[in-house]
Amino acid sequence: MSQLDLFLEAAALPGSARRKGGVGTAHEMAAKFSSQLRDARGRLELAQQRQREQFDRRHKQHKYAVKDLVWIEARHLTEKVMDRALCRKLGKRWHGPVTVVECFYSDLQAELAEADRGAPVAYRLALPPH
Question: What is the pTM of this model?
Fold first, then answer.
């Protein structure tokens, strides 16, 4: 049961015709509340639609093939690959280029050098083309 239904039930009880201060009946307040709720939901849907359109305008779908060279975002790599003596904030943001070994639906597997083993899979969104 929603808050609006509970509010209307309480308004139906005797002695609730007028509130102190002359605000109005509970039914009037409930009607005003429901119209404001409908208005807020409509505005929320409109804002979500605008955000979706903005994302679709700027989003670029990268397509990679096997043996393409790509960069891997360094924050996804293990400490063995990145030097922990350096500050992460000032360190390298990308590691590579590395060769794509296998492509999947939304991610791909890249071949790392022998010393860099530890994170062979990287997500497509984190890979700019070389």
Answer: 0.40
